[in-house]
Write a structure and sequence with these properties.
Blueprint (H helix, E strand, L loop, with lengths): L3 H17 L3 E4 L6 E5 L2 E7 L3 H9 L3 E4 L2 E4 L1 E5 L11 E3 L1 H17 L29 E8 L6 H8 L4 E16 L2 E4 L2 E4 L2 E8 L5 E2 L7 E6 L3 E2 L6 H16 L1 E9 L2 E9 L6 E16 L3 E5 L18
Parallel strand pairs: 3-6, 6-7, 9-15
Antiparallel strand pairs: 1-2, 2-3, 4-5, 8-14, 9-12, 9-18, 10-11, 12-13, 16-17, 18-19
Helix pairs in contact: 1-3
Amino acid sequence: MMESDMREKAKNAMRLILEAARFEVDEVDDPLDLSAVRENTCLLVLCSNDEDVITQFDKTNYSLMVNDHEMTCKKLLFVLDKEITTENCVQWGVDEFVRYAGEAVLADILDRELALDLSGTRAKKTAVAGAGGAAAPQEKSGITLPHFPVKITEQAAIRTAGIQGAAKLRFIPYHLFHYTSTGEQVYKDRRIPFDADGWGAINAINGIKIELDGKQVVEDEIPAGAEVTEPHIAKEEAAERIVSELIERLTQKVRIKQERGDAIFYEEKILKPDRKNIKVDAKQVYIPVWQIRGKKIVEVNAFTGELLSEPMDEGVEVF
């Protein structure tokens, strides 16, 4: 059985976690510890290792009346005994407790809402960007697309977003391009080379250009339930933009100094690469994005785990 002082410390820590997730938390009578309410969610918390108490908690249905509205309460159990299992509770052990306690402190520092997984009988293990974790296998949809793989799980994306809400996996079209430029121009005694080689991508919805290496693209089925957005910018239009921007970037202004008698002259010449010496190979690929809709819309790159500063597909159509 969890000792009284240990239980009190666990209860205080659980209060901090739930308050970081924007719950209103109150103490309740034994054998329970806390109640937590947020919008349409009611949660009852038990911190115990007592198997009899846990069994009773697991099989009992609880409800809360708020403003003449009855809400069915979810049940959250914190238990140290790894052998104890429940059927009707969200169950946290040491791993979940440590993770969420640490994240609650970070959420307080950053002044953002802590995202909790309260969906099942056990908190799901998640893959966090940069932590070396991998997403759990997902059911396939039967739709095969060239895309960057999904490496970030839904719950990891929700935690990165810092808000509670419904998450949807969407595949955003990009025109991935590889460009090469060769050739040179010689003016007077100056030789100007126009050599360049690189990768990049243009968002086929909003035209935003990003750096992207196409070597990690896979030709595989996407997960079931994911949405695929249609491109608004044609591949030819994107390729022409790349050529124009590359010409502008490689263009150089050359100034030549000349002396004529007692006078000094400066001559300027604009030298540009020849369009025929620029080659752009482009193909359409897709980047997976978790879109979380809560109090606001937040998007997380499902390949890199990066929090996106603006929606990648505002107003797009899906198929």
